[in-house]
């Protein structure tokens, strides 16, 4: 499941909306919506995220957050380390190889660190 998929599923559950109903209301297939929620499809288009924001009447910061989650929800990531140090290349390759075996607490710790590095002053 992707961060975007988890959020959409949570919104549906909180409002008691089935996947089939939401998909029908958005004029997309239930299979596609399910695949988005479970991370079996690429990140959703900007227009679909906007449709979902409108569907759940999400505005302002919450709408931006859903857009941010969508941008971070591509299930097949490519990391280009060309021009970076050998350490960066080794790190990217080891992460790709071992991410499935890392325990959730370690992933959360690494994510927290990366977020702290990207946060502006």
Question: What features would you describe in this structure?
Answer:
The protein has 121 residues and is mainly alpha-helical. It has two domains: 69 residues, 434 Repressor (Amino-terminal Domain) (Orthogonal Bundle), CATH 1.10.260; 33 residues, no CATH class. The chain has seven helices and no strands.
List the keywords.
2 domains, single chain, mainly alpha, 121 residues, elongated
Percentage of helical residues?
55-70%
CATH class of the largest domain: Mainly Alpha
Write down the Rg: 17 Å
pLDDT averaged residue by residue: 94
Largest sheet: none
Uncertain stretches of 5 or more adjacent residues: none
* The CATH fourth-level homologous superfamily of the largest domain: lambda repressor-like DNA-binding domains
Quick summary of this structure?
With 121 residues, the protein is mainly α. The chain is built from seven helices and no strands. It has two domains: 3-71, lambda repressor-like DNA-binding domains (434 Repressor (Amino-terminal Domain), Orthogonal Bundle), CATH 1.10.260; 86-118, no CATH class.
Q: What is the secondary structure topology, with strand pairs?
A:
Elements: H1 3-15, H2 19-26, H3 30-38, H4 46-55, H5 60-71, H6 86-98, H7 104-118
Helix pairs in contact: 1-3, 1-5, 2-3, 4-5
């Amino acid at each position: 499941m992707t961060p975007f998929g988890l959020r959409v599923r949570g919104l549906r559950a909180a409002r008691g909306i089935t996947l089939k109903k939401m998909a029908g209301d958005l004029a997309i297939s239930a299979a596609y919506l399910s695949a988005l929620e479970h991370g079996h499809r690429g990140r959703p288009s900007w227009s679909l995220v906007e449709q979902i924001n409108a569907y759940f009447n999400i505005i302002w910061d919450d709408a931006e957050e859903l857009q941010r989650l969508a941008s971070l929800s591509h299930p097949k990531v490519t990391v280009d380390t060309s021009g970076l140090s050998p350490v960066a290349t080794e790190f990217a390759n080891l992460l790709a190889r071992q991410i499935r075996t890392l325990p959730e607490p370690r992933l959360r710790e690494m994510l927290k660190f990366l977020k702290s590095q990207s946060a502006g002053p």
